[in-house]
Amino acid sequence: MARIDAFLKLGLAQGCSDIHLAVGVPPMLRMNGDLMPIKFRDLSDTELEAYILEILTVKQKDILMGGHDLDFSYVAGEGGRFRVNVFRKATGYGAVFRYIPGNVPTLDQLKVPAILKKFCDYHQGMVLVTGSTGTGKSTTLAAMIDHLNATRPLNIISLEDPIEFVHPSKQSQVIQREVGTHVLSFADGVRSAMREDPDVILVGELRDAETISMAMTAAETGHLVLGTLHTTGAVKTIDRIIDALPGELREQTKGFLAMSLKAVVTQVLVKTPDGRGRKAICEILVNNRAIAKLISTDQTHQIPSQLQTGRDLGMQMMDHALLDAINAKEIDPDDAIRFANEKKNFQRFVTDTDLVPMLDIGDESKL
Per the omega criterion (within 30 degrees of 0), is the bond before 304 cis? Predict the structure, then answer.
């Protein structure tokens, strides 16, 4: 058993989501969103380097020694599966291990809005799950793939960096390909997938113009494309896609989004009232004729008003979703206010007196 497995085993026993290892500090655990050190000595550069090199393949060592970061999956001696990022910094190596549960959670278990199941019923077009790092995008997409896998006979091709949840084929055939191992890039993976008779293509990250362009082509040609972006709202997601492509393709991109973008789900993870867990809260855009027109006419700034009036279609703004969850006593209002856009609307729910003066003076940047 690799020596690093002892830290991973401890992290799993504590129920953490991530284990952080860095030179000059003790190992740290991410517990319900908060980073906490474990009782251990500060790690030295030579010690941590030895821990990390012990679990790498020859190819991975060559990549790391060449000055590049590493992303890969690792199965610890105790059987836990982790997504790993290894990097260099001023004082030496660093690594983050994200725990991947052995069983793929269902959409019901995640308690996300029921409309996400309807998004899985689309036969073509693009559905995006967005949010900042660590907000559960990969978990939500894995649950959507699992729902498709369990309910429809499809050919599902999943492009990931690295592979996280492992999907055994049920009603569907699920083909998982890892960037850097099975394909050179997400764009190459989408290009290949389109020649492999897919029904559904999952793109782990729409990280560059070429990948976005290939994913758009796949969505326009009769495939359901699921993907992620590191954006924090429906409007920002649409603007990001338009801005990512060359200016001469702007009108074409707006036309694609108006016709083929089916939905955008933006999520955050908010602590539960007891502080022992976190719940996904979602902003949801469902594309309709009105929103398509706003996209086509460069009026995306008016989309929030459509989210407000489209609740009967399953749409919701982040602030409304947060308020609903607070009223249902599903989340901690002191944590929820960090994710709110109009923080003043949450003032009456705040119990942490340290937050109230910040709201009174209008200094929302501190939240």
Answer: no
Q: Which residues contact 282 (CB under 8 A, 6 or more apart)?
A: 112, 113, 265, 266, 267, 316, 318, 321
Determine contact, residues 144/119, Cβ cutoff 8 Å.
yes
Run means of pLDDT, 10 residues per run, the chain, 367 residues: 93 94 96 92 95 94 92 87 93 94 94 97 97 94 98 98 94 96 95 97 96 97 96 96 95 97 98 94 98 97 96 96 97 94 90 68 47
**Cβ density class 137-152: b for 16+ within 10 Å, e for less:** bbbbbbbbbbbbbeeb
**How far apart (Å, rounded) are the C-alpha atoms in residues 286 and 32?**
30
Tokens standing for 310?
Answer: 């489209």
Check if the beta carbon of residue 343 is closer than 8 Å to that of residue 364: yes
Model pLDDT, residue 356 = 62
Q: What is the pTM of this model?
A: 0.89
Could you tell me the two tokens for 115? Answer: 């409309």
Pairing between β-strand 173-178 and β-strand 278-286 as defined by DSSP bridges: unpaired
Q: Compute the residue count for the chain.
A: 367
Please say whether the dihedral angle defined by the alpha carbons of residues 216, 217, 219 and 225, taken in this order, is positive or negative: negative
First to last CA, the chain: 43
